[in-house]
Amino acid sequence: MLKITNLCVEVGGKEILSDISLRIRRGETHVIVGPNASGKTTLAKTIMGLREYKIKGGGIYFNGREITGLKPEQRAKIGIALTFQHPPAIKGVKLSDFLRRIGNGCEHKKYVSSQLLEREINVNFSGGEQKFSELVQVLALNPKLIIFDEIDSGVDVKRLEQITGIIKDWLSRDRAALMVTHNATALEFLKPDIIHVLLNGKLIGSSNDWKKVWKTIKRHGYEKCKECEKRKLSAG
Amino acid sequence: MKNAKNVKNANYLQVDNEIKQIVERNGVVVLSSREAWEKFGWSRKWFVGKPEQGYFIWVKKQIDFPLTACATIASPKVSQNLTNLLIVEKNIKIRANVVCNAVRNDLCGRHEAFGKLVLKDNARLEYNHFHKWGEGDFVGADYEFMLGRNAVLKYSYENLFTPKNLSLKTDVYSQKNSSANLSLVINGANSNIRIRDNVFLKGENASGIVRLRLVGRKDSRINAKSSITAEAAGNGHLDCQGLLVDDDSSVKLTPELISKNKGASITHEASIGRVNDEQMDYLRTRGLTEREAIDLIVSGFLGANKRF
Fold first, then answer.
1. Which of A92, B46, B189, B290 makes the best surface tag, with the fewest CB within 10 Å?
2. What are the pLDDT digits (tens) for A2-22?
C-alpha cells in the first residue's frame, strides 16, 4: 500500500531524514519508535505532503502510484490521513460542522461527546479531547492508511485502550496504520505487525517482534538497535 | 401596496428607486419616509431634510413578529438615496431584519443610506443588518442610534460580500442605564472600506460594547476607527480584531477611548492576525484545498461559519 524508497527530507535547509525506505502492506500495523527529535513526526508529515518538508531524494508511492509531488489535500483524497500530535485551533468552526464538511460526519460521532462536537476545533481542548477529535476527523475521511502521530501522548491508560480499540476496529484487510509512539502500553494494546526504530533521521532497524525490540530499547537504549541490525545484516 | 397577503411581518421593500411593497400590521406604522414627513409633522425633527427615499417605521405597540426592510439594487447604475427612521416607543421589545444588497455582481450601483433609530425609555431593539454587494458598487451607510433610559440595543452588521467602496458610520448615543452591543463583521475583498463607529455614554451607568471582526483579502484596504466617549459614569469596551489574508491588502485598526468622567470605566483590545501555515496545513490534510481552507478560517474568524 505505502512504499517509501531512499527518502531524504530537509526542513528549513537542514537534512532531517536520510535514506528512509519502508513498505507497509494492506492489513498491517506498523509502529515507529525513536527518541525525541529523531525525525518521526517529520516522516509522518512528509508522507502527508506538508509543504515545510522538502523531499531532496527518493520517493513515496501509494497503491503503486508515485505521490511525492501531490498536495496534502490530494493525498487525503486518495486515502491517506494523519492525526496531529499538536493540532492547531480553528476558531469559530465547530467540530460537528467540520465533520459534516469533510466526510460522513455521523458515523464516528459516537466516539466523542455531544458537548465536544459543539465546541470550536481544538479551542481549549484537553489532551484527551484533542486525541479523540483527531481520531474522529481522520475516520470521517474514510482513509485507507492512517498515520497516528503520538495519538497516545497525554492520555490515561483507559483512554489509550479506547483509542487503540477504535483503531483496531477500524483496521481491516484493505486498510493499514502507521503509528508514531513512545509508549509501551500503546504497543501492548495495538500489537503491531512491524516495529521500526528511527534514530538521527535514519531507520536503523525493523522487526516483526516488537516486544523484543522494546525490551532492548528499555534495557540498552535506542543505539543498541543499531548493533542488532548490523548483526542481523552480517548474519544474513 | 399595503397589507399584502401572505406576509406576516411589517415590511418595507424597495427595488432600485421604486417601493415594491409596504406592509403594515396592527401597532406598526410603515410608510415611505417622504410620506411620513408630510403626514407626521413631529417626525421632521428626526429627519435632516425632506427625504427622497427610505422607510419610516413607527412601532407603537408590542408586536410578536419581526420587522423587515429591504433595499435592493437590481438594475445597472442605479443610485439609491435612502433616509430611514425607526422609532420604537417606550417598553416595546422588537427585532428588525434589514437587508441591503445588489442582486448581481456587475451592476455598479450606488447606495447611500442615512438612518436614525430611536429607542425610547425601556425599549429593546435587536437589529440585524445584512449587506451583500457587487464588486463595482459604492455604498455608504450612516446610522445613528438614540437610546433612551434603560433602552437596550443589540446591533449586528454583517457584510460578507463587500462593494468597491464601503463607508460605514455608526453613532450611538446612550442615556442613563441603557446598553448598546454592536457587532460589525466584514469580509473585505477587492474593496476600500472605511469604518467609523462612536459610542457616546451620555447617561450614568450606560454601557457600550463594540465588537469588530474585519478581514482584508484580495487587494482590500480597510481603515477602521472605533471610539467610545464616556461623558458620564458608564462602562464601555472595544474589541477590535482584524485578519489579514494576503500581502496585497491592508488593515488599519484604531481604537479610541475618551473619558470625560472619572467614574467611567472604558477599555479596549485590538489585534490584527494572519492565517497561519499550521492551520492551513491542518485543514488541507483534511481534504480542503488552499482556497477552501482560507475560506473556512476566515468564516470561523468572522463567526459566519454556520452560513458557509
1. B290
2. 999 999 999 999 999 999 999
